[in-house]
Design a protein that fits this description.
74% helix; 0% strand; elongated
């Protein structure tokens, strides 16, 4: 395998990886991710058509240079999808800002021009180019058709489209990089901006060379040198863009993984609480083969992967429903129940915040036994969490204590009821 083939294989692999990572969001109907996924998929197919295998598959149709036309068509589709994604993302900032307005105009123009550009390329390809030439004449498309006036029209259209879209993407990502707070994200966005800048340079270099050979045919050596130089620029640009785009994707995957881990950690507590009070859960816990020990894992998996678009949304729902159940239990639980729970936690050797978490877990377990009591004014209750992130962290501590608590916690707390309340908060 040549160095060039290795670069192409690496680029195709990274494109397919990005497409695979974003497929779940596409299947859940997220329009913005659909545009980006389409761009990655189109680019992957376009790069595959640069390989001997891709060209061989299309060449069986018997149309010379058809892989090149398909490659350029897919590239235009990918560029259009990428530009749509960039426009959608940055319109969320301020649709009235001048740079956003310019991007939107370019995107709308590119969307309308994409079909016209593809039709023009196809018309020139089938009606004007000399397609009697094959790879035996030259391994490069430009080399095979050098001297043909319509070559300038064909590649001029493609290069102009590529340069305009890449320039807009480069500008928006460089601007986003200057505003990014996380160093890793800033580096990733800057790599994407530099990658798109190199794609603009690639289009400019190809256009300049095209203009030169239209006026005066170049030697075969000059043609080979040009192909090597522009291919190097294109490989570098695409790799930088792809490697840079992995950074935001990595952050997104890490966030999903953290949310999923939190959902799993809260599941036991959430399930117990929402089963205790009807009407709280938006989606009732799974009850497949209810009562069978083997069904526990199946039901847990179904609960933590179903219903919601993302683990983050599911985590938000779990936290909200746990707090809703807590509020309902406060209206039914004895007024001194939390004080008894705190004394029990301290009697077991818990101290400081560990005692607080254990006390809340014990209170929840004991309060579930009061769900049928008449509702009244909310009982005193102490918890932690000033924002969503800290509340999730706190509830995870409570959930661990809840799972470890004895099933007889409520009865033990009844025994502790007469103890003086000097240790209560």
């Amino acid at each position: 395998m040549s160095v060039s083939d290795a670069f192409v294989a690496l680029i195709i692999g990274l494109l397919l990886l990005q497409a695979a990572v974003r497929l779940p969001a596409v299947l859940h109907g997220r329009h913005r991710q659909r545009s980006l996924w389409g761009a990655f998929a189109a680019f992957a197919l376009a790069w595959w058509l640069r390989t001997d295998t891709g060209r061989a598959v299309i060449d069986t149709l018997g149309v010379n240079d058809l892989p090149t036309l398909l490659k350029h068509t897919l590239a235009i589709a990918g560029i259009c999808g990428l530009l749509t994604y960039v426009t959608d993302v940055y319109q969320d900032e301020d649709a009235t800002a001048r740079h956003i307005k310019i991007t939107s105009v370019v995107q709308r123009t590119a969307a309308r021009a994409s079909l016209a550009t593809v039709l023009c390329l196809a018309a020139v390809f089938f009606l004007a180019l000399d397609r009697s030439k094959t790879g035996a004449d030259s391994p490069y498309f430009m080399g095979r058709h050098v001297g043909e006036p319509t070559l300038a029209l064909y590649l001029g259209l493609f290069n102009t489209y590529t340069a305009a879209a890449a320039a807009v993407c480069a500008y928006q990502w460089s601007r986003a990089a200057s505003l990014a707070r996380r160093r890793s994200l800033r580096i990733g966005l800057m790599m994407m901006a530099i990658g798109m800048t190199l794609m603009v340079l690639y289009a400019v270099l190809r256009t300049v060379y095209l203009a030169a050979i239209t006026l005066a045919p170049a030697t075969a050596t000059a043609g080979i040198a040009q192909e090597h130089v522009t291919d190097t620029v294109m490989y570098a640009g695409f790799l930088l863009w792809l490697l840079g785009s992995i950074t935001p994707a990595t952050h997104a995957l890490a966030a999903r993984a953290r949310a999923l881990k939190a959902v799993i950690g809260l599941h036991y507590l959430w399930r117990d609480l929402v089963l205790g009070i009807n009407g709280i859960a938006l989606h009732q816990p799974s009850s497949l083969l209810s009562g069978h020990r083997a069904a526990t894992l199946i039901n847990t998996v179904r609960d933590v992967v179903s219903h919601d678009a993302t683990p983050q949304i599911r985590l938000g729902r779990y936290v909200t429903e746990i707090r809703d159940v807590t509020h309902e239990l406060r209206r039914r639980a004895p007024a001194d129940l939390f004080q008894r729970a705190r004394r029990l936690a301290e009697a077991e050797g818990h101290t400081a915040t560990d005692a607080d978490a254990a006390a809340e877990a014990y209170w929840l377990k004991a309060a579930l036994a009061t769900v049928n009591a008449p509702a009244g004014a909310p009982a005193a209750f102490h918890t932690a969490g000033d924002d969503f992130a800290s509340e999730v962290a706190w509830l995870l501590r409570v959930a661990r204590a809840y799972r470890a608590a004895s099933p007889h916690t409520g009865a033990i707390m009844d025994v502790l009821a007469p103890i003086p309340l000097h240790s209560a908060r």
